[in-house]
Amino acid sequence: MKIEIIGSGIVGLSCAAFFTEQDCDVTVISTSNGPDESCCSWWAGGMLAPWCEMESAEPLIGELGLESMKFWEKFTSSYQKKGTLVVATSRDLPDLKRFGRRTENWQQVKQNEIATLEPDLADRFTTGLYYPEEAHFDPRQVLPELKNYLKNKGVIFQSNTSLSTQDLHAPPKADHRIDCRGLAAQDHLDELRGVKGEMILIKSSEVKLSRPIRLLHPRIPLYIVPRENNLFMVGATMIENENRSGATVRSVLELLSAAYALHPAFGEAEIIEIGVDARPAFPDNLPRIIRKGNTTYLNGMYRHGYLAAPAMAKRLVEQVLGYNTTTTPYEQANKPALSTGSM
Amino acid sequence: MKFYDEEISSRFLIGTALYPSPAIMLEAIKASRAEIVTVSLRRESGTEQAGQNFWSFIKDTGAKVLPNTAGCKSVKEAITTAHMAREIFETPWVKLEVIGEDDSLQPDVFGLVEAARILTEDGFQVFPYTTEDLVVAEKLIAAGCEILMPWGAPIGSGRGLNNIYGLRSLRAHFPNIPLIVDAGIGLPSHAVAAMELGYDAVLLNTAVAKAGDPVLMATAFALAIESGLQCYQADPIEKRDMAAPSTPVAGLPFWNQDHA
Q: pTM for the complete prediction?
């Protein structure tokens, strides 16, 4: 079967991976020659934290997350299972209690255990929650790795190709078209909206961290993810608008204050990059597979791209091909709803 | 019950921030049976079309929108935000917040009075987020406010009514001004307490949005607010030090036997 995938973000590439597995001829059409900053996935934190996300996400995200983690663990060498450490400043300690009550699979850690996990945070926090099963990676390593893997598998990449409205309404040249354009698919998917996110990349040789640290904050999930070469990704705001023109002073202040509160040595860190993008989301903030004729859309990853994309791609491939591909340990009866309609 | 010229029946005003998703927000608003929703402009708006999707969710609720100037720290900021709100929502209503202190998010009452005066002169109908201070309340009314919204406790703290005496005095002082407890409510029992004091309505956001089940919590608050209102209207009994039997003791046989 010939499959045409539009979009080369984490959703497009995940779909390509699962179709290739089923011996389909896959072409990926992309406006960029990325992976690069043109896709939302580029800006992600790369945390695979299904348990922490359960604090506010629907249970479905946890299920998809566990399944996707199996995929990532097998797939990428940069997968690091070092867990997540959740801490709070003294004023936000009641939030830590609530966070623990709403999530599972954590261990309470005291000052000395925090010091063992993250020596640089010794004496900075008296209590925290440790989620040992969680993992992280650097999306900017994973995306190119995935693309190269697909190229080696024979996937054709038609880069720097912008499709016109007419192209997108015309029948696909392949047997089936998979639309993975993220927020750009707003022209076809009424309910899709953008949720603005801002992140900052900083560099410091004074602080060493082994795993993502979440610093509880009353409004946004703040986290600091260590990356190679003394880099740290600080994210991420969630604002209900689609303006991607720039980060606001307030957001930058908030993100950098979080880093500084985590460790004062971050005060001397170098700011490498301030990123802004808008996450595609449906009103329930859950991903959807939507079929219209011989085009199938996978969209609405919200803040769960890496956590949800492989698992959703698998479901999409099964729906398009009409058979179950493989069984995985986390395959649940509770699959996301498939909505159908016509153009 | 009238807020400015608008007839209002629900005594629950609900905020639209911090929900896990817009879908859950819409369900929670429905469950709250609130007729008025507050919307924070500064963070969500951006410019022109950028926030349109979120606005359309809010408009879909059919509720009256009370835009707020949340997060504004100066008179000028608050006024600019109020003007943006009036353009976007086509309403003269504005919940006026001028924050004076970062840790408690306590209102800067001096800035508040000044901003209230300027906005009222400009045709706005101001809902000021204030403390329970009587003198400030007087000045807000002199500045043109026809409603007062004293805090229960600091925003998002969930501590309930910190100064019941102060809130009661305010009610006694302004029997004819609509009074709404705004901020600090954590539990339905806090909302009941506010309504039992004779307050006209309760405004809250975090207690519902950050609950494990926001929709269920919205229902819990709706019931509590209705319960507190009916209690106040029913004129509750006074406390007394001694027991007061609910059946006539004198008619019981042997009632006086100890003294026989």
A: 0.82
